Amino acid sequence: MTIRSRIATAFAVASLTLVFSGQSHATVFAAWQVANVPFGDTLNVRKYPSGTSQKQAAYPNGTVLQMTGRCTGGVNLLDIAGQPAWKQQQTVRYRWCEVWHDPAKNGVFVTGWAYGKYITPF
Predict the structure, then answer these.
(1) Is 74 left (phi over 0), alpha (psi -120 to 50) or beta?
(2) Average pLDDT in the 92-116 region?
(3) Other residues' Cβ atoms within 10 Å of the Cβ of residue 77
(4) Model-level pTM greater than 0.90?
(5) What span, in angstroms and rounded, lies between the C-alpha atoms of 58 and 40?
């Protein structure tokens, strides 16, 4: 192997290492479930973090959601996962948290937003 090919290989390995090290939470999901929704109602998951945004899907109490970890206000569910459940709920109570879901149930997953008041750690 020539010196040039060794250097090129070293740069390629270093570049890949940097790319993958920056994605610490990229493929990890936090499991939370729908809770505290009034009887007969459902939690609306919306396209953007706003109560006036387009509704993507609705889930009843007990539904387990895949959360990306990202919430408004800079909160990350993966960072607070070691705290007691009540404290995690209080942290997200007035925030919107991002959901990874399949609203059409056709295998096409998208992100949406759920209001923190109606989710709890699973």
Answers:
(1) left
(2) 97
(3) 25
(4) no
(5) 12
